[in-house]
Amino acid sequence: MRDLIMLSTHRAIATAYLLGGDEDLREGMSEAQERGVKVILVGVDPPTEQNLSPTLAMEADDVLILDRNFLEPHFRERAEDIAPALEPTDPRDPDDLARAFAAAHVEREGLPLARALLERKPRTIPPEVDRLLLLYAAKSLSVGRVEDDFRRDLRKAFWSALTELAEE
């Protein structure tokens, strides 16, 4: 968002295309528009849910929705990265999902790396592991984005599952 503000401040752009629709883009979009930049919000046709903030869409100069079928051939999930060794019993249960993902992570990365992860200070999931965890959860739940509460529970359950595996 900082780039959009800087480019509009220096009058380096006349039109900006924002791919995404989170509410946190609103402030930067408004600032750019105040400086005369036309802002076009670009979203992807969601299969089951809305992926653009209604407020952001109303304030944009234009909204462009890309057809999912047009984009899908150009993107793919790396199945080897998100397919766990064990399938969760109940994909709606963050504990089950986390256990399956943690088991696959330990199998792929090895127990020494899992133990090193548990010893990190501050105790945070590395971004690349967190991304795969959330991708796995979204795929298991058949959603585009995992809700915040579920995400928080999933991360907590991942630490618990990893701790159990490291103690074996």
Quick tags:
3-stranded parallel sheet, 10% strand, elongated
Care to describe what's here?
The model has no long low-confidence stretch (mean pLDDT 86). The N and C termini lie far apart (45 Å). Strand 2, helix 3 and strand 3 form a beta-alpha-beta unit. It is built from nine helices and three strands. It has two domains: 72 residues; 89 residues, no CATH class. The chain has 168 residues and is mostly helical. Helix 6 crosses helix 8.
Spell out the blueprint of helices and strands:
Elements: H1 2-9, E1 15-19, H2 26-34, E2 38-44, H3 54-59, E3 62-66, H4 68-71, H5 79-82, H6 94-109, H7 111-118, H8 127-141, H9 148-167
Parallel strand pairs: 1-2, 2-3
Helix pairs in contact: 1-2, 6-7, 6-8, 6-9, 7-9
Spatial strand arrangement across the major sheet? 1-2-3
In what range is the share of β-strand residues?
A: 5-15%
Mean of pLDDT: 86
Gap between N and C termini = 45 Å
Tally the beta strands: 3
* Cα gyration radius (Å): 20 Å
- Stretches where pLDDT is under 50 for at least 5 consecutive residues are none
Helix content: 40-55%
Number of helices: 9
Helix and strand content put the structural class at mainly alpha
Query: What's the number of structural domains?
Result: 2
The main pleated sheet reads as: 3 strands, parallel
How are helices and strands ordered from N to C? HEHEHEHHHHHH
Q: Assign an overall shape.
A: elongated
